[in-house]
Structure formats: structure tokens, C-alpha cells
């Protein structure tokens, strides 16, 4: 099983703050289940736009420890998809659309995101069952872990 975490989850995990307990638990459960945690290549692009050079260098060094989603599908050629989620107006919209498109085209099993905009778009695409908040992902994967134990 392959799970993609969005840029904000990555930053939350890797910054210099205390990690939210639900995210700690979720990452532990995913590890126990041997689920591959992926980063979308556009998350690197997202981090490269950070104007804080020190933080940017730190985050770029940390993101290289993750497996990247290889050859992700490109959303810009799918007008049907773009009509549903909206054409990107800002660089961040393009990143969000690219990440969502990977779920939509089944390049991965689940996306974990706390971004309400991503969740709204997932709902419009009828893929909300595969775009999970940390809390929902924790519930689902804890149940899977209990079954496997």
C-alpha cells in the first residue's frame, strides 16, 4: 500500500516543533503496517518557493529521505479534471491539483492532508474516501493493524 503525505504534513513532521500526537500515532501505525510513505515531486517545488533560505535548505535536505512518487500523472492535460477542481491561479493551486490528480488517477492508494481545499476538491472528484485527514487515517489504519495482529 502506498500513502502520499502532502507538503504541509511533511513540514509538520519535519519542523522543529513538538509533533501532534495523532500524527505521531499515525506514522507509527503506518510503519508497523510497512506502508510506504511517499512525497509528490511537486512538494519539492512547493518547498523551493520558501523565502526563508535557511528553513528551505533544511526542509529540502529532509525531504530527500522520503521516497518520491515516480512519474506522477500530469493534470494539466485533463480538462475534465481541471473543470471540476478549478484551473490553477497560484503555484500552490498547481501543486494541490497535481497531488490530487495522482490520487484521482490511482497512482497511489491514499493521500493524507489537513488542507480543507484539497478535501473539498476530493469531494467534488468523488475520491474523498481516499483523501484522509490525519484523524481519519489514524482510525482506518489502526483498524487494519488490529485485524492483522
UniProtKB/TrEMBL annotation:
Pfam families, A to Z: PIN_3 (PF13470)
Domain PIN: 2-116
InterPro entries: PIN-like_dom_sf, PIN_dom
Name of the protein in question: PIN domain-containing protein
Organism the protein comes from: marine sediment metagenome
Amino acid at each position: 500500500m502506498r500513502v502520499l503525505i502532502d507538503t504541509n504534513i511533511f513540514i509538520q513532521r519535519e519542523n522543529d516543533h513538538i509533533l501532534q500526537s495523532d500524527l505521531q500515532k499515525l506514522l507509527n501505525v503506518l510503519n508497523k503496517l510497512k506502508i510506504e510513505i511517499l512525497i509528490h515531486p511537486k512538494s519539492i517545488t512547493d518547498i523551493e518557493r520558501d523565502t526563508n533560505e535557511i528553513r528551505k535548505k533544511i526542509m529540502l535536505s529532509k525531504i530527500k529521505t522520503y521516497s518520491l512518487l515516480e512519474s506522477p500523472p500530469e493534470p494539466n492535460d485533463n480538462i475534465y479534471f481541471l473543470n471540476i477542481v478549478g484551473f490553477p491561479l497560484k503555484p500552490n493551486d498547481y501543486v494541490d491539483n497535481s497531488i490530487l490528480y495522482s490520487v484521482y488517477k490511482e497512482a497511489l492508494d491514499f493521500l493524507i492532508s489537513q488542507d480543507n481545499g484539497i478535501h473539498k476538491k476530493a469531494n467534488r472528484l468523488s475520491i474523498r474516501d481516499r483523501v484522509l485527514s490525519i484523524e481519519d487515517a489514524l482510525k482506518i489504519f489502526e483498524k487494519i493493524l488490529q485485524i492483522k495482529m
